[in-house]
Amino acid sequence: MVSIFSGLIELQRHDTAVAQLHHRRSHLPEHEALMALAVEVGSLERQTAPTRASRASLQVKMEALESSVHDLDVKIEAVQSMMFSGTVTSPRELQGMEADIVSVKKRRSELEDNELELIDQAEPLDAIITAADTKLVEAANERDRLDRAVLAAQTEIDVVASGHIVQRADLVRTLDAPTVALYEATRSKNRGVGAVLIEHGTCMSCKIKIAAIELDRIRQLPVDTLVRCEECSVILVR
Ligand SMILES: [Zn+2]
After folding, report:
1. pTM (2 decimals)?
2. So what's the pLDDT on residue 158?
């Protein structure tokens, strides 16, 4: 027996499908993976921040040393060109310049030793930073992959949902407007369920068995009579 309410079951089928698709869209496993990845990246960045800071301060010291070494080179060069220019002829003065070069070279060598020490200190830090950077690049690639997967899944869901929405709109045009309005009002108060079939004498919304006597009464009603579940108020369709 087909009642005027059976169209509501079809409407409900589309609405349930759209609701399930919405739920799936906002609970994609990739979303969870992306959140876990963000947590992982955040903790890795926090862990390596002190190492990066130490490495940066070593870099500043190394550059300062390099600049001092360069200044000494310039000085050595200047003294040497003065010595070989022939303008200084006094042996005492030349000797003084020689001694000057020796002392500057000694200072230069000390600075270079300091620089080597800093390079030694930087090595283990560089190893930690390189390993962290490798992991961060991998994480960025994984995030891109997940972003693409989310987009693909959402696009696929949207296509299916749009199909239901179009079919639903076509269906609504064929249904009695007050009946659809009642369905909508019921659905909004009943967790998205507006109309269900009675199956095995049970309301398929609240799953409560309808008393045999009530079921008999319902069965004898004209097909266009509105029947609602006494428990959950859903529209019952026979
Ligand atoms: Zn019910």
Report:
1. 0.73
2. 98
Total count of residues recorded for the chain? 238
Q: What distance in angstroms lies between residue 25's CA and the mean position of ligand 1's atoms?
A: 28
Distance, CA 8 to ligand 1 centroid (Å)?
16
Look at residue 230 and give its three-state secondary structure: coil
Which stretches in the chain have pLDDT values below 50?
Answer: 1-2
Task: List all residues 6 or more positions away from 64 whose beta carbon is below 8 Å from its beta carbon.
Answer: none
SS3 226: coil
At residue 192, the 3 state secondary structure works out as coil
3-state per-residue secondary structure call for 57-114 = HHHHHHHHHHHHHHHHHHHHHHHHHHHHCCCCCCHHHHHHHHHHHHHHHHHHHHHHHH
CA distances to 6, 164, 205, 227, 230 from 237, rounded to whole Å, are: 6, 21, 11, 7, 14
pLDDT confidence of residue 3: 60
Q: What is the structure's pLDDT at 106? A: 97
Q: Which residues surround ligand 1, an ion (CB under 5 A)?
A: 203, 205-206, 229, 231-232
Q: Locate 147 and state its tokens.
A: 């972003």
What is the per-residue pLDDT for 1? Answer: 39
Cβ(72)–Cβ(107) below 8 Å:
yes
Tokens of 1: 């027996």
Provide the residue type at 20 as one letter: Q
